[in-house]
Design brief:
Chain lengths: ~100, ~120
């Protein structure tokens, strides 16, 4: 199942509401996770099962969507959120999006 | 705290075997599922396979003839071997643990290693 993320690069200001998109090639039945990867660090699980927040992740991160279209939202962008974000489906085997690189404007 | 750390050679010659180790601390590999994911230079990621708490394995069909995942429970380590490598196997390799909420195992990954970059080149 192909996962397509958009945009590939996003520039935003501190305090902005940021929305990242992940589109699946077919219905993935809400089996979707989001990860954050900062430069030189291990990826970190943010969200699983579309909208369940992983323990320890700030509440400004949220996930939504269904069927083939999913969204990660950061309600108020913080400087430490600069990273690449990628999605993963686990409905059929495991496939990943290519990522959205989030930078500060 | 659960920590995973990959190790292995950063350069492998074509046609040879790639061998990586994942050392796990803070959690026993005799519980849960442990896998390998790789990220290619163009950012595409591929789930390669996993080994379960019983030692059984499942591999990505695209790699099935070349891949082997094994473990050493006494050292709390698991291993990746990929045979007959080509330049297309150049990637950053991550070891991962499957998500676990204390009751159920899930097919997302709640712990990742930092990754090790492997280049296949003569």
């Amino acid at each position: 199942i192909q996962m397509t993320q958009s945009p590939s690069l996003l520039s935003a200001s501190v305090g902005d509401r940021v929305t990242l998109s992940c589109k699946a090639g077919q219905n993935i039945n809400n089996y979707l996770a989001w990860y954050q990867q900062k430069l030189g660090e291990a990826p970190k699980l943010l969200i699983y099962n579309v909208n369940s927040l992983q323990t320890g992740i700030p509440s400004r991160f949220s996930g939504s969507g269904s069927g083939t279209d999913y969204t990660l939202t950061i309600s108020s962008l913080q400087p430490e959120d600069v990273a690449t974000y990628f999605c993963q489906q686990y409905n059929s085997w495991y496939t990943f999006g290519a990522g959205t690189k989030l930078e500060l404007k | 705290e659960v920590q995973l750390q990959e190790s292995g050679p950063g350069l492998v010659k074509p046609s040879q075997s790639l061998s990586l180790t994942c050392s796990v601390t803070g959690y026993s590999i005799t519980s849960n599922y442990w896998g390998w994911i790789r990220k290619f230079p163009g950012n595409e990621m591929e789930y390669m396979g996993y080994i379960t708490y019983t030692g059984s394995t499942t591999y990505n069909p695209s790699l099935k003839s070349r891949i082997s995942i094994t473990r050493d429970t006494s050292k709390n380590q698991f291993f990746l071997q990929l045979n007959s490598v080509t330049t297309e196997d150049t990637a950053t390799y991550y070891c991962v643990r499957r998500g676990y909420d204390g009751t159920y195992y899930y097919r997302y990954f709640d712990y990742w290693g930092q990754g090790v970059m492997v280049t296949v080149s003569s």
